Automatic annotation (TrEMBL):
It is found in: Membrane. InterPro entries: Aur1/Ipt1 (IPR026841), DUF5933 (IPR045977), IPC_Synthase-Related (IPR052185). Keywords: Membrane, Transmembrane, Transmembrane helix. Coiled coil: none annotated. CDD domains: PAP2_Aur1_like (cd03386). The lineage of its organism: Bacteria, Bacillati, Actinomycetota, Actinomycetes, Mycobacteriales. Pfam families: DUF5933, PAP2_3. This is Phosphatase PAP2 family protein. It comes from Nocardia pulmonis.
Length: 429
C-alpha cells in the first residue's frame, strides 16, 4: 500500500508543480521531461546517470542491448537537432531506453528478473525526476523569499573566519585548469552518486538480493527534506549578495578580495526575482558527504576498494572547495549541510536495528543541532561577529561532537562486528 501510494503521488506532484510553473512563467517538470524525450535535454549527465543506475538490475547481455539502443537513439536525435541548427547535446536516448526497459520488464519478464529490473528502473527514474522537481523548487524559493538573510549569515560566518573569501582567492590562484576541474566536480555530483550506487548494487543481479540501505535512499531523502529550509531561511550566497553577480542589488563588489564592513544592525535584503535562495543548508555538501560515507564500506561492512575510497574523499574535498571558492555558499551553510546529511543517514542506516534509544538520540540531536544553527545564524549573528572566537569554538565544537557520535555509532566498530550486524540487512526482492 505504501509503495502504491508513493507511485501515485509522483504524477500528482509533477502535475501540481507544472501548474505552479506555468502560472508563474517558468519551465515545469512535465515540460522539462518532455524535452528529455523529444526536445533538447536540460542535462547531459543526469539522464545517463539515471540509465546507468537502472542497468544495475539487469544482466550484462541486457545491459549491452539497452546501452546500444540508447546510444543509437541519441545519435539520431543529435544529428537531427544539429541539422536544424540546434545544440550538439545528448540525453534523449538514455531517457527513452530507460522507459523502454521498464515497459519491457513490466510486460515481458517474470519473477526475479522482472522485480530487479523494475526496482532498478524506478531508482533511475526517481533520480531524473528528482532533478526536475528540484529545478522547480528553486523557482519557488524565489517566490517565497523576496528578501534574503545574507547580512545575518555574513556576521555568523565571521566566527568561522569568512572561509568563502579565503577559498575564493585560493580558487582564483589555481587558474583556469583548477577552476575547470572543480566546476566539473560541482556540476557532475549525480555521476559520482551513480558510480557509488552502482558499486553498492553490483551483486543484485547474480544474487537477487538488495541491500537494506544504500546511497540512493539517502540521496532521495536529502533532496526531499533539505530544500524545505530554503523557504525558511532564504540566502543567495556571497557571489550574489556581495559581488558583481547581484544584478545591481548587491551590497557591494567585495567578494572575494575584501571583507565587507560588519553591519551590527542587519536587516533582510530585498533581492531579484531570478537568483535561487538555495544556500542554507548547502545541499551539495550534504550530498557529497553522503557520497563520501557510502564510498567507505560495502553493504556487508567490508571495506570498499581503495580507488572508491580515494574517489569519495576527493569528491567531498573538491565539492567543499568549489562551494566556497565559487562564492555559492558561506561556511555556515556547509556546516548545516553536513549536519543534515548525518541526521538523515542516522535515520536510515542499519534499518534492521530498528528505532532503538541510540538512533532516536542521534536523530533528535541532529535535528536540534540543525535548528540551533539556523536560529543562531538569524538571532545571534551580531553576537557571533562581536565574539568570533567563543562563537566559533562553540559552533565547531558542537559540530565535531555530533560527527564523533555518528562515527562512534555507525563506523567505529570492528570489521567483524560490523559484518555481523550488517549480514541480515538484506532482503530478497
Amino acid at each position: 500500500m505504501l509503495v502504491g501510494a508513493a507511485v501515485a503521488a509522483v504524477p500528482v506532484l509533477l502535475i501540481v508543480l507544472q501548474i505552479v510553473a506555468s502560472h508563474n512563467g517558468f519551465e515545469g517538470p512535465l515540460h522539462s521531461l518532455w524535452n528529455d524525450f523529444a526536445g533538447t535535454p536540460k542535462s547531459v549527465s543526469v539522464p545517463w546517470a539515471g540509465l546507468a543506475l537502472a542497468l544495475v538490475g539487469v544482466s550484462w547481455r541486457r545491459r549491452f542491448i539497452t546501452l546500444g539502443v540508447a546510444l543509437g537513439i541519441d545519435a539520431v536525435f543529435a544529428a537531427v537537432r544539429v541539422s536544424h541548427g540546434g545544440p550538439l547535446t545528448i540525453g534523449n536516448g538514455a531517457v527513452i531506453a530507460l522507459t523502454g526497459l521498464a515497459l519491457v520488464a513490466w510486460f515481458g519478464w517474470e519473477g526475479r528478473d522482472r522485480r530487479n529490473a523494475l526496482h532498478a528502473a524506478a531508482l533511475g527514474a526517481l533520480l531524473i525526476l528528482a532533478t526536475k522537481v528540484g529545478d522547480v523548487w528553486l523557482h519557488i524559493t524565489v517566490l517565497a523569499g523576496p528578501n534574503v538573510l545574507d547580512r545575518y549569515v555574513l556576521l555568523a560566518d565571521h566566527a568561522l573566519g569568512e572561509p568563502s573569501w579565503v577559498m575564493g582567492r585560493v580558487v582564483e590562484a589555481l587558474g583556469p585548469v583548477g577552476y575547470g576541474v572543480l566546476h566539473w566536480v560541482y556540476i557532475e555530483l549525480p555521476v559520482a552518486a551513480m558510480v557509488v550506487a552502482a558499486w553498492q548494487l553490483r551483486r543484485v543481479v547474480p544474487t537477487g538480493v538488495w541491500p537494506s540501505h544504500y546511497l540512493v535512499r539517502t540521496f532521495l531523502v536529502l533532496g526531499l527534506v533539505g530544500p524545505v529550509a530554503y523557504v525558511l531561511f532564504p540566502v543567495v550566497g556571497p557571489m550574489f549578495a556581495f559581488a558583481a553577480d547581484g544584478h545591481g542589488l548587491q551590497l557591494g563588489n567585495y567578494w572575494p578580495h575584501t571583507i565587507p564592513p560588519l553591519d551590527h544592525a542587519p536587516a533582510a535584503l530585498p533581492f531579484d526575482t531570478v537568483t535561487p535562495r538555495n544556500c542554507m543548508p548547502s545541499m551539495h555538501t550534504a550530498w557529497a558527504t553522503a557520497v563520501f560515507l557510502h564510498s567507505r564500506r560495502a553493504a556487508d561492512g567490508s571495506p570498499a576498494p581503495r580507488w572508491l575510497r580515494w574517489a569519495g574523499t576527493f569528491w567531498l574535498l573538491a565539492t567543499l572547495t568549489a562551494t566556497l571558492g565559487f562564492g555559492y555558499h558561506y561556511g555556515a551553510d556547509l556546516l548545516a549541510g553536513a549536519v543534515l546529511c548525518l541526521t538523515v543517514e542516522s535515520a536510515l542506516r542499519d534499518p534492521e536495528r530498528g528505532w532503538d534509544r541510540v538512533r532516536i538520540q542521534l536523530v533528535a540531536a541532529g535535528v536540534a543541532l540543525l535548528a540551533g544553527m539556523l536560529l543562531s545564524y538569524r538571532f545571534l549573528a551580531v553576537w557571533m561577529s562581536q565574539h568570533p572566537f567563543p562563537a566559533g569554538v562553540v559552533l565547531l565544537g558542537l559540530f565535531a561532537g555530533y560527527v564523533w557520535a555518528c562515527y562512534a555509532t555507525w563506523f567505529a566498530g570492528s570489521s567483524a562486528a560490523t559484518t555481523a550486524s550488517a549480514r541480515p540487512a538484506v532482503h530478497a526482492d
